[in-house]
Amino acid sequence: MKRAIALLFVIMASPAAHAFPSYASGDGFRGAELMTPEERQAHVARMQSFHTFDECETYTAAHEAELQKRAAERHVTLPPKNTVLFDGDPCKVMRFMGRIK
Q1: Which of 36, 45, 89, 99 is positioned for an S-S bond with 94, CB 3.0–4.6 A?
Q2: Rounded to two decimals, what is the model's pTM?
Q3: Where would one find the signal peptide in this protein (predicted)?
Q4: Domain boundaries defined on the chain
Q5: Mean per-residue pLDDT for 37-51?
């Protein structure tokens, strides 16, 4: 239990966590290499615009489907989701951090 709390503290204390999505730079997120710079910027802006969990989940499901389609077209495999916390779901992370309800 103490390890989990310590891990959460480290994650939340990192600069990336405070700027969640942690990929606010526009190129440090899963699937970014399949997007144009303009698409990456629009995706980050969209992720930061959500007010509700449902909005976020709806968008991320469509975004994931698009990334999978692009990956298949280019014969590449997307890296696995980081499932250490929140099953790799950015919406769950944003809800946990209080960014969305």
Answers
A1: 99
A2: 0.71
A3: 1-19
A4: 2-96
A5: 94
